[in-house]
Amino acid sequence: MKNAKANYILTITCPDVAGLVAEVSSLLAKNGAFILEANHHNELTSGRAFLRFAFVDQTEGHSADGWRAHYQPLIARYQADLKIYDISQPMKVMIAVSKFGHCLQDLIHRWKAGILPVEICGVVSNHEDMRSFVEWAGLPFHHLPITKDTKPQQEQQIRDLFKSYDAELLILARYMQILSAEMCQDFDGKAINIHHSFLPSFKGARPYSQAHAKGVKIIGATAHYVTTNLDEGPIIEQAVERVDHSVSVEEFVTIGRETETVALTRAVRWHGERRVLLDGPRTVIFK
Q1: pLDDT by residue (tens digit) across 19-34?
Q2: Whether the Cβ atoms of residue 5 and residue 88 lie closer than 8 Å to each other
Q3: Which fold has domain 91-285?
Q4: Is residue 123's pLDDT more than 60?
């Protein structure tokens, strides 16, 4: 099927059993699917299997629920976590930002250029700094100031907006607020954060200055899912650059921000393409 574009993605996580890949692919073919991508990984340490198929429904008569119905016996037999996504429409996402706009700007630029497979619905922020840029881009900007006393109410506003947009992913694009444990649980597997990779060695407001003072040779950033353990969620992507004694603090900051945009954008793209499967504290990514 030349130049075909997938309209469904199927993912499965379950105990590793012989013949699983053949069974899944056979059911697809039997019911009129043309498979464009097929990926699988058998994790020996956990004894679990991870599968992802991108396919075209040649019958044009199925829905995502209809495809799932074909797999009910398999789901019951293997206690499989099976998901089927209709990708005719991109995943809806909402972005949270504070004062630093480099990650936000990169995401919006790539979305506008049609190279980020998501739909950005709106932006929330605890500061006004990025309002003009966001509104220039034609997106809703929601200023949600926060104090220690108003944190529960502010987080509920974020939940309400996320639900109103029918969003599936919250992107913390240098959102400089620690989410509550309840918020982290509500967004388990649905929120991606970006942070500099100096943690825990260089904590605080000026990590690049601390790293420069220590003479580090590699700087970078990590994109990960949000969990109740601060900055310790499953890693999706990491980007690094080499530096040396000639690099100034200002250049450290610039290079560091570049790695942050690279890592976060890749993570969002892979998540939007349903390429990331969770394996406990780790991720399986079919690139």
Answers
A1: 999 999 999 999 999 9
A2: no
A3: Rossmann fold (3.40.50)
A4: yes
Q: Which residues are catalytic?
A: 231
> Residue 157: how many CB atoms within 10 A of its CB?
15
pLDDT at 51: 99
CATH number for domain 8-86, candidates 3.20.20.70, 3.40.47.10, 3.40.50.970, 3.30.70.260: 3.30.70.260
- Alpha carbons 46 and 57: distance in angstroms, whole number: 33
Contacts (Cβ under 8 Å, ≥6 apart) of 133 = 101, 104, 105, 108
Q: Looking at residue 213, what is its pLDDT? A: 82
Measured between alpha carbons, how far is residue 167 from residues 3, 46, 159, 228 in Å? Answer: 30, 31, 10, 21
Reported as a single tens digit per residue, the pLDDT across 189-231 is 999 999 877 544 666 667 778 877 888 888 889 999 999 987 7
Tokens at residue 8, please? Answer: 């469904």
CA distance 226 to 188: 7
Domain residue spans of the chain: 8-86, 91-285
Write down the residue that tokens 């991108």 correspond to. 54
**Secondary element (H or E) of residue 278:** strand 276-279
Q: Which of 155, 147, 150 is nearest to 124 (CA)?
A: 155
pLDDT tens-digit map of 63-112? 999 999 999 999 999 999 999 999 988 999 999 999 999 999 999 999 99
- Of the CA atoms within 13 Å of residue 6, those in its CB half-sphere come to 18
Q: How far is CA 182 from CA 13, 172, 179, 202, in A?
A: 26, 16, 8, 27
Q: How far apart are CA 39 and CA 274, in angstroms?
A: 12
Amino acid identity, position 100: F
